[in-house]
Specification:
The complex is a heterodimer. By secondary structure, chain A is mainly beta. Chain A has 5 helices and 55 strands. In chain A, the strands form 14 sheets. Chain A has a 4-stranded antiparallel β-sheet, with no helix packed on it. A 4-stranded antiparallel β-sheet of chain A has the order 6-7-8-9, with no helix packed on it. In chain A, strands 10-11-12-13 form a 4-stranded antiparallel β-sheet, with no helix packed on it. Chain A starts with a strand and ends in a 12-residue tail after the last helix. Chain B is an alpha+beta fold. Among the domains of chain B are: 371-467, no CATH class; 544-670. Chain B contains 19 helices and 30 strands. In chain B, the strands form 8 sheets. Chain B has a 5-stranded mixed β-sheet with strand order 13-14-15-16-20, with no helix packed on it. Chain B has a 5-stranded antiparallel β-sheet with strand order 22-23-24-25-26, with no helix packed on it. In chain B, a hairpin with a 4-residue loop joins strand 15 (140-147) and strand 16. In chain B, helix 4 (368-378) runs parallel beside helix 6, helix 10 runs antiparallel to helix 14 (549-560) and helix 12 runs antiparallel to helix 13. The N and C termini of chain B lie far apart (81 Å). Classes of the chains: A mainly beta, B alpha+beta. Chain A binds chain B through residues 1-11, 273-274, 361-363, 366-373, 375, 378-379, 603, 620, 623-624, 631, 635, 639, 641, 643, 658, 664, 666-667, and chain B through 14, 281, 295, 674-685.
C-alpha cells in the first residue's frame, strides 16, 4: 500500500481533570461522572462504555456530588452552594438552586428518587423535593457543628446517615432529629487523637452503617446501638470513597494511595448462617487518590485524581468469559479535541480554557519503514488563544486553509481571522458574529473554508458564511424535519459543499437536508462524508456492528456496507474497547479510509477482502517478513498500526502524509501532583 | 424457645419474630421449661407438675394435643440430640420419655428423701445418656450422677464451704469426666471433677473442689447470678458489678480462667432476669423487656491477648519461643476437640486411671506421676518403658508440663546411675511432642552428649530455646569429632540439608578428593584481578561439601540454636584446630552456596540463614585467629575465603558504580522516547 510520512505529535499538553464523583443509574446503565474542573460526563455502559454526553466545566462550579433522581434527571451539587440540574439534552446546567447552607459537600437521593438530601458546610442536612422542572426546599434536619462530608439514605428512606469530622450522625427523616451519634475515633487514646474525617458512608437496609475515614479504616457500625461491629484498616492513608452493591453483599473502597479494595459478606463457614465482611480483592489501578467508586451488579468502577476511569468486571458475575470480563481504563475523552488544517498543516488543540495553534514541522528527506527523518523545519507554536470568563470551551475548529479559528463556550461564540504573512502571524476577532442560540456543540468548516457549520440544540445546524477579509454572515439554520430535543454533537460536510451530516444525542444521523439514515439504537462515535463518492461513513459505539457506509445520492447503504454486515467483522476488531473517534479519507485513493481509536490506527482498504475470524487481524509485522507473492495472499482490508498510543487524533494531510497526536500516560502523570508518599522497600 | 407460666413460644433468632405460640388453659401453669425433641420435632411441656403434653408445630391448640398424666411430679425434661428425652422427677427418679409413655402411671421410685433438686443437666457420653443433678438439704449439697443404660446411680457430697453456698451450676463432660462448675455466693467459681467410670461402690464420696476463678475486678466484685462455659479458657458470667462507692450495675462479662482476667464486659442498664443461656456462639438473656442475643467470639487465649498486647494473631511457626503457659500441645488439642461435644470446648482435666490399667504396682486413684517416679528408680527397663508409653498416651492435666519435667529428670538420674538404662525413643518423642526446654530437664543434653546420641542432640538444638553456650559448644565439638562413617549409620534428620547437598554415598569419597584438589588449584592462582570466570572457578572449588550430609545436618542444628557471642567465644577457643578448620570449611561452603542464590537464602526447612553463617564464621575466626594464621591448610582456606569475599565486594562496588550510568542511560532513553515531535516513516502493506 505504501509508505507514509508520519508527523508524530506529542506536544499537546492535555491533562485530563481528575474524577471527583460518580453516580450510576442502574436502569439506564449510565454512569455520570464529574471531574475536578466541574465537567460532567455521561457514559453509556450499554453502548460499549461510550462517553455519550459531555458538559464542559466551569471555573467556579465545582461538583462535589452527583445524583440521578426522578428517573433520568441528573443533579449535581458543589462548593458554590447550589444544587444544579443538568439538561442532558442541551448539555448545560439547566438551573441552580441555592442550598443556603454554604458550600455543599455531599448529596444523596433516596431510593425512589423523589427527595434529595444535601450536606452543607455549616453542618446542616437539608431535604429537597424533586418536582417536575425543579427542586423545592422541603425542610432542614437537625444541625450540628462540622461540615457534612457524606450522606447516605437508609434504603427505606426513613433515616439518613451523615458523616462529618470525628462523628457519624443518623437522622430521622420524618422528625428531623438526630437519632444516633457515633464517635468514630472513640477507641483512639486521647494522646493520639487526631481529627478523623469520615469521607464516605453507606447505610445498609440491615441497619449497618459502613464508613470509610481518613485513618484508612473501613468500619461497620450498628446504627441503633451505635456500636462498632467490625473494623478493617485498608490503608495507612485515607479511605476516601465507598460504594455498596445493590444486593448489599459486596462493597468497594477507594483509598488515597490509589488502591481499591473489595469487601464481601461471606459466610464464616461454608454453608453456615453467620456471615462476615471480608476483604477479598485488592486492586491497584490508580496512582493517585481514588475519589469515587461505584459498584454495579457486574463491575467495580473507580475514578481517580489521575483522571482514570477504571471498570473492573467481577469475574464471578460475568456470564461468559469474553469481552465483558476485560478490565477497561479510560483516561482520554471520547471527543475530538484536535482539529487539523490539512492544507496549511496546522493543528489546533483545545484545552479547557484556551486554544493552541501549532504549525507542523517538515523534512526534505525520505527513508525506510521505522526511520526517524531529520527535521528541516521545527514545529512552531503559533499562538495561544485564551478564553475569557470562567466557562470552559465546548468546541473549536480551524478551517482547512488555516485562516479561520472558531470556538464556543456555554454562552459565547468567537470567530477569529488569522493572517499569515510569511512567518508572522496576526489574529483579528471577527466583528458582528451573529447572535445564535448557544452553546455550540460542534464546529465544522467546509472544505473550501467558505462556510462554517455550527451544531446547536434541538437538532439544528446554523450555517454561517465566512467572508474575506474578515467578516461573516448567518445564512440559514437547518432543522431536522422530524424535530428532536437533543443537541447535535457530530458534524460532517461533503467536499463539494452539497451535503452535511449531523448526529444528535438521540443517535439519529440526520442528513441535511434530504434524508435520515436509518436509526440504529447505538451512539454514533464518528462520521465523515467521502469527498469523491459522497458516501457517508459512520462508526457506531456498538462492538457488534461497528461500521456502516451509506450512499447519500442513492439514499441507501452501499454494497460494501451490506457485504460487511453479511460477513461480519473480525472478532478482534469487534472486541476493541475504545470507540473510533475520527474518520478520514485518502484524497487520491477512494477505497482507502483512515480510522482510529485510542490504541490503534487503521487504514481500511475496501478493495481488499475482509479478514475472516481465522485470519490474523493485526498482521502488518507478519506481512513485512513475507515474500511478495505470499504477502499477496495474506492481504486483507484492515491495515492496523498500533505503534502510536494512546492516540488522541490522527488525520491524513495528503495521500502520503499522516499526522498523529499522542498523549503518553507518562506525560500526563508527570504533570499530576505527586501522589501520597508510599514507602517502597529499599528507597 | 421461651416458656412462660402459661405459654411457650419458639422464635427464630435471625428473623426476630415468633414462629408459634401455644398456651395452656387458664389456671394451669407450665412447671418446667418446654423442650424440643429434635428427633421427632415435637415439643414437650409439663404443666401442673404431672401433666405431660407433646405436640408438633402444626398443632394449634394445646388442649387438644397428646396428654399423659404421670404418677409423680416432674422436675425437668431434658432433650438430648439423637436420643430420647429424659424426664427427671422431683424424687430423683429418671425415665426416658418412651419408657414413660408406655405406662404413664408407672410408679416412680423416690431416690432422694428430703433433698430438693436445685439443678440438673443431661449429657450423652458415647451414646449413653448421663444425668447429673444437684440437691440440697440443710445447707449440704449433693451431686447425683445417673447413667441410665447402666442403671447406676452415684451420690457424692459436695465439699462444704464456709459462709457461702453454691448459687448456680454448669457442667460438661469430656473424656469420661464430668466437670461441674459452681458459682458460689462468695463470688468465686469452683471446679469439681467427677469421674464417670466409678468402680468403687462405696457410699457418699465427698468431692473436693478447686478454685477456678475469682470474680473481682480491681476492688469491685461481680455478684454473679448465672454463668456459662464458653471454651476451655473462658467463662461468661452474668451478674451485677458492685463497686464500693457506686451503685451496682448489671453486666455480662467474659473471663479468662487461664489468666484470671476479665476479657470483656457489657453493661446492661435495663436489668436482666439473671438468667443466661448460650447456644452456638451466641448469648441469650433478657435485657429490660427484650431478649437480647449477643454474638461472641473467644480467641485462643494467650498471655499477650489477656494483657491486651496481642499484635498479630498469626500462629508462630516451628521455631517459635517456648510458651511457658501453654500446657497443651496443639496436636493433642485438636484430637480433644474432635471428640468433645460442640457446645463445650476442650478443658484440661485430670483423667482418672481406667480399669484397664494393668501395672500392678500402681494403686487405682493414686497419684500416677508419683508412682511413676518411684518405679523409674528401680523397675526394669521394660516395665518403665511400658509405664512411660501409658503416660504418653494419656491426656495431660494442668501440671503435666512440670510432671513431665520431673519424669525426665528421674529418667536422667536413672540413666546416670544405670548405664544400661536409656529410654531414647521416649525422650525423643517427648522433646518432639512437648514444648520442653533446657531448663526443665538440664541434665538431658549432658547425658545425650555422654552417649553421643546425636539425633537427640539435634532435636534438642532445634527445639530448646535456652541452651547454655557451654552445651552448644560441647555439641559442636562432639559433632565435629564423630566420623562421617559412624554418622552414616545413625538416624539424623536431614531436612535442613537435603535441598542443597547431594546425598550420594557412593561418590562421596570422590567428592572429598575433588574438594581438596579444587582448593589446591585455586591456591596456586595468585592474582588479585577478579573476573567473572575466576569467580565461577571458585564456585567450583567449593561445590562439594567438606562434611557428610549427616554431619552437615547436625552442624546446621548448631548454627540454628540461639547463643550469645560473649558467652560462646571463651568456649569456642577450646575447639581443636583441625575441627575448627573443618567447621570453617563447612561454613565457607555454606556461604558460597548462599551466595549462589539471588536471594542469598538456602532452600529447605531449618536451613541456616546467611547472617547465621556469617556470624559463626566471624566468631570462629575471632576465637582461632592465631591458629588459623599458623596452620598451612587453614591459610589456604582463609585465602580462598578472602578471595571470594573480595570478589563479592568488588562486584557489588562495580555494580554501585554503574548504577549511575544505568540510570543515565534510562534517562536518555526516556528522553528520546518522549521527544515531543518527530517525523517517522510508516509502511503499511
Amino acid at each position: 500500500m505504501g509508505e507514509f510520512e508520519v508527523h508524530r505529535v506529542r506536544f499537546f499538553g492535555l491533562v485530563p481533570a481528575g474524577v471527583r464523583c460518580m453516580a450510576y443509574q442502574h436502569r439506564g446503565c449510565r454512569l455520570a461522572l464529574a471531574r475536578t474542573d466541574g465537567a460532567v460526563e455521561v457514559y453509556n455502559f450499554a453502548a460499549n462504555y461510550f462517553m455519550e454526553k459531555a458538559i464542559p466545566g466551569h471555573q467556579t462550579r465545582s461538583v462535589e456530588a452527583l445524583c440521578w433522581a426522578a428517573g433520568e434527571r441528573l443533579f449535581g451539587a458543589g462548593l458554590c452552594g447550589d444544587i444544579t440540574e443538568y439538561d442532558l439534552e442541551r448539555l448545560h446546567p439547566a438551573y441552580a438552586v441555592d442550598g443556603f447552607g454554604g458550600p455543599i459537600w455531599s448529596m444523596a437521593a433516596n431510593n425512589d428518587g423523589t427527595q434529595l438530601a444535601i450536606g452543607c458546610e455549616d453542618g446542616s442536612v437539608k431535604l429537597f423535593q424533586v418536582v417536575p422542572g425543579g427542586v423545592q426546599f422541603e425542610k432542614n434536619l437537625d444541625r450540628q457543628k462540622g461540615r457534612v462530608l457524606c450522606l447516605s439514605w437508609h434504603p427505606s428512606g426513613t433515616h439518613l446517615a451523615a458523616g462529618s469530622i470525628n462523628f457519624i450522625r443518623v437522622l430521622d427523616v420524618r422528625s428531623g432529629r438526630t437519632a444516633q451519634r457515633i464517635m468514630v475515633n472513640y477507641h483512639v487514646p486521647k494522646s493520639k487523637k487526631r481529627e478523623c474525617v469520615v469521607w464516605s458512608i453507606a447505610f445498609l437496609s440491615s441497619g449497618t452503617i459502613i464508613s470509610s475515614d481518613s485513618f484508612g479504616r473501613v468500619q461497620f457500625w450498628d446504627w441503633e446501638r451505635g456500636t462498632l461491629q467490625d473494623s478493617h484498616t485498608v490503608s495507612t492513608s485515607a479511605a476516601l470513597s465507598l460504594a455498596v452493591s445493590e444486593e448489599e453483599d459486596s462493597i468497594v473502597v477507594g483509598t488515597s494511595a490509589g488502591a481499591t479494595y473489595q469487601f464481601q459478606l461471606l459466610p464464616v463457614k461454608t454453608g453456615g448462617q453467620e456471615k462476615r465482611w471480608v476483604k477479598t480483592k485488592p486492586f491497584q489501578h490508580h496512582t493517585h487518590d481514588v475519589r469515587a467508586v461505584v459498584h454495579t451488579p457486574t463491575a467495580l468502577i473507580s475514578g481517580g485524581l489521575d483522571a482514570q476511569l477504571v471498570i473492573r468486571p467481577l469475574m464471578e458475575k460475568v456470564q461468559k468469559k469474553s469481552y465483558d470480563a476485560v478490565l477497561r481504563k479510560f483516561t482520554l475523552p471520547h471527543r475530538r479535541l484536535v482539529s487539523c488544517a490539512r492544507k496549511a498543516r496546522l493543528l489546533l488543540f483545545q484545552f479547557s480554557q484556551h486554544l493552541e495553534l501549532w504549525r507542523l514541522g517538515s523534512t526534505n528527506k525520505t527513508g525506510k519503514d521505522g526511520e526517524v527523518l531529520p527535521l528541516s523545519r521545527m514545529p512552531e507554536h503559533l499562538l495561544q488563544l485564551k478564553s475569557k470568563g470562567p466557562e470552559h470551551i465546548y468546541c473549536s475548529c480551524v478551517s482547512p486553509c488555516g485562516s479561520w479559528i472558531a470556538y464556543s463556550t456555554a454562552s459565547r461564540f468567537h470567530l477569529y481571522r488569522v493572517q499569515h504573512e510569511g512567518d508572522n502571524i496576526s489574529i483579528k476577532k471577527v466583528p458582528g458574529v451573529p447572535k445564535l442560540l448557544l452553546p455550540a456543540y460542534q464546529l465544522q468548516c467546509a472544505s473550501d473554508s467558505g462556510r462554517l457549520f455550527i451544531a446547536s440544540d434541538r437538532g439544528s445546524v446554523h450555517v454561517v458564511q465566512l467572508l474575506e477579509p474578515g467578516g461573516c454572515k448567518h445564512l440559514h439554520t437547518l432543522r431536522p424535519p422530524a424535530g428532536t430535543r437533543e443537541a447535535v454533537y457530530l458534524l460532517a460536510s461533503s467536499a463539494d459543499g452539497n451535503w452535511l451530516a449531523a448526529v444528535s444525542g438521540d443517535w439519529e444521523a440526520g442528513l441535511c437536508h434530504h434524508c435520515t439514515v436509518p436509526t440504529y439504537s447505538c451512539a454514533v462515535t464518528a462520521l465523515a462524508i467521502h469527498p469523491a463518492t459522497n458516501n457517508l461513513f459512520i462508526s457506531y459505539s456498538d462492538q457488534q456492528v461497528g461500521l456502516f457506509e451509506f450512499s447519500i445520492p442513492e439514499k441507501q447503504y452501499t454494497a460494501w456496507s451490506r457485504s460487511v454486515q453479511n460477513s461480519g467483522l473480525h472478532r478482534l476488531w469487534l472486541e476493541r474497547d475504545s470507540p473510533i473517534t475520527h474518520i478520514a479519507f485518502n484524497p487520491k485513493n477512494t477505497s482507502q479510509i483512515l480510522l482510529h481509536d485510542v490504541y490503534m490506527l487503521c487504514v481500511l482498504d475496501k478493495s481488499l477482502p475482509l479478514p475472516d475470524n481465522n485470519a490474523l487481524l493485526v498482521n502488518q509485522s507478519t506481512l513485512k517478513q513475507l515474500s511478495e507473492p505470499a504477502r499477496h495472499r495474506q492481504l486483507h482490508a484492515f491495515k492496523i498500526c498500533k505503534k502510536f498510543q494512546p492516540l488522541l487524533f490522527a488525520d491524513l494531510l495528503d495521500e502520503r502524509c499522516l499526522v498523529t497526536v499522542e498523549r503518553p500516560a507518562a506525560d500526563i502523570n508527570a504533570e499530576l501532583p505527586p501522589p501520597v508518599q508510599q514507602k517502597k522497600f529499599g528507597t | 424457645m421461651f416458656s412462660f407460666d402459661h405459654e411457650s413460644n419458639p422464635q427464630h433468632v435471625s428473623d426476630q419474630k415468633p414462629l408459634g405460640c401455644w398456651s395452656v388453659k387458664h389456671g394451669q401453669i407450665i412447671t418446667c421449661p418446654v423442650v424440643c425433641n429434635f428427633e421427632t420435632h415435637e415439643y414437650i411441656a409439663v404443666h401442673d407438675n404431672k401433666v405431660l403434653r407433646i405436640w408438633k408445630d402444626k398443632d394449634v391448640n394445646l388442649d387438644k394435643v397428646f396428654k399423659a398424666t404421670l404418677s409423680a411430679e416432674v422436675y425437668r425434661v431434658h432433650s438430648l440430640p439423637h436420643a430420647e428425652p429424659l424426664v427427671l422427677f422431683r424424687g430423683g427418679g429418671v425415665r426416658t420419655l418412651d419408657v414413660l409413655l408406655e405406662a404413664p402411671q408407672q410408679e416412680i421410685e423416690d431416690v432422694i428423701s428430703d433433698e430438693v433438686i436445685k439443678w440438673s443437666e443431661a449429657f450423652l457420653e458415647g451414646q449413653q445418656p448421663v444425668l447429673i443433678f444437684v440437691t440440697e438439704k440443710d445447707g449440704d449439697f449433693f451431686v447425683y450422677v445417673q447413667k441410665l443404660k447402666m442403671r447406676s446411680l452415684h451420690k457424692y457430697k459436695l465439699e462444704q464451704q464456709e459462709l457461702s453456698n453454691p448459687l448456680c451450676f454448669t457442667a460438661y463432660i469430656k473424656k469420661q469426666i464430668i466437670t461441674l462448675l459452681c458459682l458460689y455466693s462468695s463470688d468465686s467459681i469452683y471446679k469439681v471433677l467427677i469421674p464417670l467410670q466409678q468402680n468403687s461402690e462405696e457410699e457418699e464420696q465427698t468431692l473436693s473442689k478447686s478454685l477456678l476463678l475469682n470474680l473481682s475486678i480491681s476492688g469491685s466484685v461481680l455478684k454473679g447470678t448465672s454463668f456459662v462455659v464458653l471454651d476451655k479458657d473462658h467463662v461468661a458470667v452474668l451478674g451485677s458489678l458492685a463497686a464500693s462507692d457506686e451503685e451496682s450495675k448489671e453486666c455480662l462479662t467474659i473471663w479468662n480462667t487461664k489468666f484470671q482476667t476479665l476479657q470483656a464486659s457489657k453493661e446492661l442498664p435495663l436489668g436482666t432476669s439473671g438468667q443466661l443461656w448460650c447456644y452456638g456462639e451466641k448469648f441469650f438473656f433478657t435485657h429490660g423487656k427484650v431478649l437480647t442475643v449477643v454474638i461472641y467470639k473467644c480467641e485462643t487465649s494467650s498471655l499477650a491477648a489477656a494483657v491486651g498486647k496481642l499484635k498479630d494473631s498469626q500462629t508462630s511457626d516451628l521455631c517459635s519461643f517456648l510458651n511457658w503457659n501453654t500446657l497443651q500441645d496443639e496436636e493433642l488439642l485438636v484430637s480433644c476437640q474432635s471428640q468433645q461435644s460442640a457446645a463445650l470446648k476442650s478443658e484440661s482435666t485430670m483423667t482418672l486411671r481406667s480399669k484397664k490399667s494393668t501395672v500392678e504396682n500402681i494403686q487405682p486413684g493414686a497419684s500416677t506421676i508419683g508412682q511413676l517416679l518411684l518405679s523409674i528408680k528401680d523397675a526394669s527397663t521394660a516395665a518403665v518403658e511400658d509405664e512411660l508409653r501409658q503416660l504418653l498416651s494419656k491426656v495431660q492435666r494442668p501440671d503435666f508440663q512440670a510432671a513431665i519435667g520431673s519424669v525426665i529428670s528421674a529418667l536422667i538420674n536413672r540413666c546416670k546411675t544405670d548405664p544400661a538404662f536409656y529410654p531414647r525413643n521416649f525422650l525423643i518423642q517427648m522433646i518432639q511432642k512437648r514444648e520442653l526446654s533446657y531448663s526443665l530437664c538440664p541434665d538431658l543434653m549432658a547425658v545425650a552428649l555422654e552417649k553421643k546420641d546425636v539425633h537427640l542432640l539435634q532435636i534438642c538444638l532445634q527445639r530448646f530455646p535456652d541452651i547454655p553456650e557451654e552445651i552448644t559448644y560441647a555439641c559442636l565439638k562432639v559433632f565435629l569429632s564423630i566420623s562421617d562413617e559412624y554418622l552414616e549409620r545413625t538416624d539424623v534428620d536431614l531436612e535442613s540439608v537435603i535441598s542443597y547437598i547431594d546425598i550420594e554415598p557412593n561418590n562421596k569419597e570422590v567428592k572429598t578428593e575433588v574438594v581438596e584438589n579444587g582448593f589446591s588449584t585455586e591456591l596456586e592462582e595468585d592474582g588479585c584481578d577478579v573476573t567473572g570466570m575466576k569467580e565461577i572457578h571458585m564456585m567450583d572449588s567449593v561445590e562439594f561439601c567438606p562434611v557428610g550430609p549427616q554431619k552437615a545436618a547436625l552442624l546446621n542444628a548448631v548454627l540454628h540454636s540461639a547463643y550469645s557471642e560473649t558467652f560462646l567465644l571463651p568456649h569456642l577457643k577450646g575447639l581443636p584446630a583441625q575441627q575448627a578448620v573443618l567447621f570453617l570449611r563447612y561454613l565457607h561452603y555454606l556461604y558460597v552456596k548462599c551466595s549462589e542464590r539471588i536471594n542469598t537464602t538456602l532452600p529447605g526447612v531449618l536451613s541456616p540463614t546467611v547472617s547465621q553463617i556469617m556470624d559463626w564464621m566471624c566468631l570462629l575466626l575471632d576465637a582461632h585467629f592465631t591458629v588459623m594464621v599458623m596452620l598451612p591448610e587453614a591459610k589456604r582456606l582463609l585465602s580462598s575465603m578472602h578471595k571470594f569475599v573480595r570478589a563479592q565486594v568488588r562486584f557489588y562496588s562495580e555494580l554501585n558504580k554503574i548504577e549511575g550510568s544505568l540510570q543515565e542511560l534510562q534517562r536518555i532513553k526516556c528522553q528520546t522516547d518522549t521527544q515531543a515531535y518527530s517525523i517517522e516513516v510508516l509502511e503499511l502493506i
